[in-house]
Amino acid sequence: MPEGITIKQVWTQNKVDNTGSVTSDGKYISSVDWETGDIAIRNLKTGVNERLTHEGSWEDPMHFAVNNVIELGT
Fold first, then answer.
1. Three-class DSSP labels, the chain
2. Does residue 2 lie within any of the structural domains?
């Protein structure tokens, strides 16, 4: 089998967007929790979402995540 780029759909539903990134090990994807404005991660094996921050707010002044990159320490 030739090596190269592989495309795989890993998550489909209304909370998916393109604001985050996949970890280098392919286990997690970061995203914005648009209900709260917090940064979240999704475990791509279990499908469980978890908020990493708890300071998002749509109130004045607004505090919310937009683009984010996640990398796990070694």
1. CCCCCCCCCCCCCCCCCCCCCECCCCCEEEEEECCCCEEEEEECCCCCEEECCCCCECCCCCECCCCCCCCCCC
2. no
